[in-house]
Specification:
Largest sheet: 8 strands, antiparallel
Radius of gyration: 16 Å
Shape: globular
Number of helices: 2
Distance between the termini: 24 Å
Number of domains: 1
Low-confidence stretches: none
Strand content: 35-45%
Structural class: alpha+beta
Length: 186
């Protein structure tokens, strides 16, 4: 891969927010449609009041160095509103592990996106995620993988380095365990 389209998705509308999730799209593509579909597919598991803003444009970076090389513009951004019950625990939720086919320094390149907060009813009595909600999240992630236009980026390991690498996601796994977030920073 050579260039990646960086897309900052803003989480807003609840206490402790705004927050940001960073996604990388394949250069020449438009990640807004895939990301809008992904957030829409899982909106019922998140508390009402939460919304995600997917921008219609952003920066293009060169994946080996991380240098800014231009910008991208898509068909248009979108805002997706969560539709679950309003009760939630701030910062508590799930996460998705993104898999790729790349091996870097004897390790498989992976990414992770935190999905927090989930609505209170997303959890069962054992403190894990209700099976139906886990299925909703997993199916949405599988659909995003199927678009083949979202990538994981491995940053260069040294300042001014050139060993960065971008790779399209090939798998997604959402473990049946709860995680927590302290901050989301840009």
């Amino acid at each position: 891969m050579a260039n990646l389209n960086r897309c900052y998705v803003t989480w807003s509308g609840l206490a402790g927010l705004p927050g940001v999730s960073v996604f990388y799209g394949v250069a020449g593509g438009d990640p807004t449609g895939s990301l809008t579909a992904w957030f829409t597919a899982m909106q019922s598991v998140f508390p009402a009041g939460l919304s995600w803003t997917i921008p219609g444009s952003g920066d293009t970076i060169e994946d080996t160095t991380g240098d800014l090389v231009g910008g991208w513009s898509g068909a248009g951004g979108a805002t997706v509103a969560a539709s679950g019950s309003a009760a939630h625990a701030s910062g508590c939720g799930a996460y998705v592990n993104w898999g790729t086919a790349a091996i870097i320094n004897d390790r498989r390149l992976r990414g992770r996106t935190f999905l927090a907060p989930l609505m209170n009813s997303a959890y069962d009595n054992a403190g894990t995620i209700v099976t139906g909600n886990l299925t909703t999240l997993q199916n949405a992630a599988n659909t995003l993988v199927g678009t083949a236009d979202i990538a994981v980026w491995h940053r260069p390991t040294t300042s001014g380095g050139s060993d960065g690498h971008g790779e399209v996601i090939t798998s997604a796994q959402i473990p049946d365990q709860v995680t927590s977030l302290r901050t989301r920073r840009r």
